[in-house]
Amino acid sequence: MSSMNILMINLIAPSWPDYELLETGDGVRLERFGGHLIIRPDPNILWPKSRPEDPAWQSAEAVFIGKEDSTGWRMDDRLRAGWPVSWNGLKVTVRPTPFRHVGLFPEQSIQWQWLKERIMASNRPARVLNLFAYTGAASIVAAQAGAEVCHLDASAGAIRWAKENAALSSLPPTAIRWIQDDGLKFMAREVRRGKKYDLILMDPPVFGRGPRGEIWRLEEGIEQLAELTGALLSDQPIGLLVNFYATATYPISIERVFADRLGDRLPLQAGCLCLQESFSGKSFQTGFFLRS
Fold it and tell me: Which stretches within 53-174 are classed as H helix?
C-alpha cells in the first residue's frame, strides 16, 4: 500500500484502574501509577498547566529533577525499589530510572488490547517476535493470550526486569524465550535458519547499543529492519506493530520503508499514540506507530 494512501489516526489510550494521566503543563506531566503520583518532564509539553493550584501537584511522591540527584529523582525512599501496577492480568513493577522512565509506557495499553485480540482471533498457535522489547509488557500479554513468544533486547538489565514482570504476572519460566542480542544480527540469523513469525512487534530506539557495542541509529537501520521483518513474517501473518518515540524522522517516511517491503501482504495503518488528561479531557501525543 502506498504511503500516499495512509491516513494518520490518533489512538487515545483510556485511563485504567492502575494508571491515570492527571495533567500536563509547563514541561512536565503528573501521573498516577498504582497508588502513587509522580511528576516527570516531557519536552513536547509546550503549554501551561490548566490547574496549577490543584493539591495533586503538591502530593507527588516522586519528582524527576535530573542531575541534582544521583538517581535523577526526588522521592520517598519506599519507592526506589519500585511497586506493582496491573492491567487486565498483566502485572509489572514500575521503578523510577535515571532516564525519567519507569519501565512502562502506559499509552501502550491500547496496543496491548489490540495484540491480545489479534492473537486470540487467529485461532491458531501464533509465533510472536518482540524486538527491542524492554521490560516485557507486550511479551507477557502475547504469552497470556496463548502465543509462543520470543523476546529480544540488547540490555541484560531490561531482560532481568522483563523476567521479573513475567513471574509477577504468574507466567511459567518457559512461557517466553528470552534473547539478549543485537536485533538486526538476531533477525538475520533467524532468516538463515528459515524461522518464521506470525506477528512481529518492535519499538526501535532512535539510538542504541547492542550487547557487544554495536551501534544502532534509526535512520540508518530502518531499511534493513523492514527488509528482515518481511523475510521473517509467515505466509499468513496475523499482524505487525512498530512503535517509535522521540524521532525527528517523519512517521510517513518510516511507513513508506515498511510498505515498500511488505507490499500487499500487510496493509499498514499509521498514527499517533495519545493519552487523555483527567483534568482537562485533552489528549497528549506520546509517540507514533505503524500496525496491520
Answer: 109-122, 137-144, 156-168
- In order along the chain (292 residues), what is the average pLDDT of each group of 10 residues? 60 94 97 97 94 96 81 90 97 95 96 97 95 97 98 96 98 96 96 98 80 74 93 95 80 86 83 95 93 92
CA distances from 192 to 111, 185, 231 (A): 30, 11, 10
128 φ, ψ (degrees, to nearest 5): -120, 135
pTM equals 0.93
Q: What domains lie within the chain, and their CATH numbers?
A: 3-291 (3.40.50.150)
CA dihedral 150, 152, 156, 159 (to 10 degrees): -50
CB of 228 closer than 8 Å to CB of 204: no
Distance CA 216, CA 30 (A): 32
Handedness of CA 223, 224, 227, 228 (dihedral sign): negative
> Distance between CA 22 and CA 39 in Å, rounded?
10
Residue 123 contacts by C-beta under 8 Å, 6 or more apart in sequence? Answer: none
The pair phi, psi for residue 109, each rounded to 5°, is -60, -30
CA–CA distance, 37 with 223 (Å, rounded to integer): 40
Q: Residues 214, 212, 183, 216: what is their CA dihedral angle, to the nearest 10 degrees?
A: -20
